[in-house]
Amino acid sequence: MAPGRLSQEATWGLIFLVPYIVLFLGLVIYPVSYGLILGANPKSYVRLWTDPVFLRTIVNTVVFLGVAVNIKLFLALLLSGFFVHERRWIRWLSVVFILPWAIPSIPTILSFRWMLNAEWGMLNSLIFRLTLEDGPNWLLDRWSGLGMICVVHIWKYLPFWTLILLAGRLAIPKDLYESADVDGASGLQKFRYVTFPSLRNLYITCTLLSTIMSLGDFNSIYLLTGGGPADSTQTLATLGIRYAFGMSEIEVGVSTVVVALPVMLPLLVLMLRRMKKGEQP
Amino acid sequence: MASVSVEAVRKRYGALEVIHGIDIAIPDGEFVVLVGPSGCGKSTLLRMIAGLEEISGGTVRIGQRVVNQVPSKDRDIAMVFQNYALYPHMTVRENMGFSLRLRKAETEVIAERVQRAAQILSLTELLDRHPKQLSGGQRQRVAMGRAIVRNPQVFLFDEPLSNLDAKLRVQMRTEIKALHQQLKTTSIYVTHDQIEAMTMADRIVVMHDGIVEQIGTPLELYDTPANLFVAGFIGSPAINLIRGILRRDGGRCWVATEAGVDLPLNGDAAGQDGQAVVYGFRPEHLTPVENSGLLSRIEVVEPTGANTFVYAELSGAQICGVFSERRSFAAGETLHLMPQLDRVHLFDAASGRRLAA
Ligand SMILES: Nc1ncnc2c1ncn2[C@@H]1O[C@H](COP(=O)(O)OP(=O)(O)OP(=O)(O)O)[C@@H](O)[C@H]1O
Ligand SMILES: [Mg+2]
Prior knowledge:
The complex is a heterodimer of chains A (281) and B (357).
Chain A (H helix, E strand, L loop, with lengths): L7 H31 L3 H8 L2 H32 L4 H15 L2 H11 L6 H10 L10 H29 L3 H10 L3 H29 L3 H4 L13 H11 L3 H28 L4
Chain B lengths: L3 E10 L2 E11 L4 E5 L6 H9 L6 E6 L2 E2 L10 E4 L11 H11 L4 H14 L15 H14 L4 E5 L7 H18 L2 E6 L2 H7 L2 E6 L2 E6 L1 H6 L4 H6 L6 E10 L2 E5 L5 E3 L11 E6 L4 E4 L4 E10 L4 E7 L2 E7 L10 E6 L5 E4 L9
Helix pairs in contact in B: 2-3, 2-4, 3-4
């Protein structure tokens, strides 16, 4: 083979790589750099920091992530302990339980929105019938709106995380529990000394991953409150839309996403490190 | 320490019964081995005694107390699992002290007992390691240590050596036996390895398909197996078994095989003339003779140094002989072999039961 010329194998290798390189350039590098260019204008950031809506949005985002992610994962941890039991009816129930996660968001979250409608929603009609009093304005107040957003988010994503933690529980050898039984551990002690130490790493990884994923949860907010009333329930995921399409300030819209990067990137790096390190008690 | 008694115990999984009424009485301090082929129900029986498996019928007593409804932790037993079941996030010390800690024993008491158990099992250097930093044999010892710190009434072992290599297995076998001689705690030990059973047990329970085939000391099982199953299961290499018809003529007695060979018997052998029987003799009870023995053709010779294993064809069946004297055997050679008549076993062919002399 002449020097400087590729072997046939290497040539074919390159040919097969081309589609991936093209896709990567077209679908990752191009949009990301275009976004960064759009978000590179310092004026956008001045505009953001002086906009009270933006500051409120930061608070909303932190509250949403802190409350929704933690409650969701804690519930998932408890529920996975229920679904780990081997009974036929539990198996059927778990299929039903997966549904919220499996079905599309738009119809389900919209029906939440209608159920929660203050005047004619199902919930308030029910409250009125039972108590003859008007129910609260669920979605027309910042904090109850955010609360409902958390509820919908948890309802939607709880099954997924329950499934992940269930897999974690199933990987714990059964004889550890039997050994703990013989040693005299109660149910709670078995959780404390066997289950939790084995799940701890997974739980932390799930929390990180869920935080990253929930930051991008657009549907739960946009479809339920639309960020309203008066932009009081926006999060970073929905705020970009407000600027970009509501107010035709595309550059500012992109900047809202860039703002999240200093928090997101360390989280991502931390996560990837943990995953590489694997299970290490 | 306590006796254990298993009375008419049954186990059903739904409609499927896997243990069909087992009776075993284990006196205080005895080392009993449950042995049998895979799937015969040894683990299930042990787990019922441990309280890890519900008892479908019959009674299990530990000491004088019926424990059918008593939860595992209140049965005062300790169990060593096949995969050791060490808590991965605790150190060896914490693993060993865990049960005492759950029982709210004082810290000094726990430390002292763990220390003593560690000494007995030479684990002192390893106390601060985590299980995954230990070798298989060390893990096995920690599992033992965890059992002995409790000082329970009964030790239960479910194939604790099956994950070790052959050499370590032999070594741990001796250690467990020595430990039992020191502690004298009633022990029930499950294995499918008959050598392990023979070498460790005070008494062996041979199980098969959910029933007990025979209970006895190792030598009782070896010398007087109650049936064909036990005869075939105990002893290595396995006993030679040849089918035939029992013949009596005056004071003389023999077994006639289909191939026309007459297998010799003592005159006082049990059984009736014309009865279909199985003639059994162990490989080590076969002697080469000059002539007048059973003519057999050697197929394979396996010298091991101490003994020579000879596989030969006799009356259409393959038999094995073990000879300790140095004598050259060659494949293809014909040999006169004679079983020691007082060690020949005779079984009824139909029921498989031993014909008592
Ligand atoms: N949960 C279960 N459901 C149905 N059948 C079972 C269950 N557990 C065990 N069995 C059956 O019970 C029988 C006895 O099982 P067991 O585990 O006691 O066997 P074993 O003698 O310990 O075998 P091994 O030497 O392979 O461990 C087997 O036939 C097995 O298939
Ligand atoms: Mg078993």
